[in-house]
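Entry, Tuesday afternoon. Goal for today is a structural model of the target with fe (ii) ion bound, before we commit to ordering more compound. Inputs were pasted exactly as handed over by J.K., no edits. I checked the ligand SMILES twice against the vendor sheet because last time a stereocentre got dropped in transcription.
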Amino acid sequence: MTDDVMPLPTAVPSDDDRELLHELEPEAARLYDRHAKVAQEWFPHDYIPYAVGRDFDKDPWTPDQPRLTGVAQTAFEIGLLTEDNLPSYHRLIHGMFGKGDGPWISWVGRWTAEEGRHAIVLRDYLTVTRNIDPIALERGRMTQLQQGYDHDAPSTLRGLAYVAFQELATRISHRNTGRYSEDPVADKIMIRIAADENLHMVFYRDILAAAIKVQPSQAVRAIVDEVLAFEMPGAGIPGFLRKAAAIAKAGIYDLRVHRDEVLLPILQHWRIFDLTGLDAAAEEARRQLAEHLEKLDVAAKRFEEKMARANGGSRLVRAG
Ligand SMILES: [Fe+2]
Ligand SMILES: [Fe+2]
């Protein structure tokens, strides 16, 4: 934040935001309908290998049972606990879009229902395969949900920018977790979840593209603020920094992925660096954005070199 007074997290949109949401309502309706047409129905139980399941009262969980490696376990644990916090995300996004029965609220309902499947399928998979201690997992969920999650998005534009980046980040980290696991069952689950996250990203990305047309300078400033402040929603999980470092070392989600596969594709889609007629503050924000992307590139290169020198641990070989 600058010298401005820190805005209070708002439970309801401000008047300005309300106006913007109203103006974007037809586009939200169009994107919602498009989503409903392309999103495929799927069922978590179809993805779970129940044949390998055993009763826990007769055969309790022991640490030798998981077949996933330590980092794959960590990535699944972070992925699931992040999905588990859905009540907080629902509260925040519902607050951002306001009340009523229009397309914004239809979207929140649909999105929430789809997200709920992710935690169901992940927990069922991890429990049936015994790949993570189910007691630790449940205790982690209790801690995580009691703590909840907050993201002070002072405006609708910033909130939309956050969810667009976050959905793509989640799509890629889930997808890479599946590949890293070297378990075809897990891989198939993660491909399925990643396909959902992709459609979510596309909704938020495209509604923000429409917002850029309405309020280009405000939108650019909001996007840059979000890029500079971006944090994954799992940041509140106990031991997150250590676990995120292991996930980065494994190549599942690191600075290179964040910059090249999350930030750049969305920024390019919005043509942020091609927009004309911006006010001075938005131009300044764009300059900061270019500088930030450059710094991320330098840091990512340094990390890659360090990983190459260390030459230890198994690192996901990414395509492209
Ligand atoms: Fe999800
Ligand atoms: Fe999602």
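Confidence is low (pLDDT under 50) at residues 1-10.
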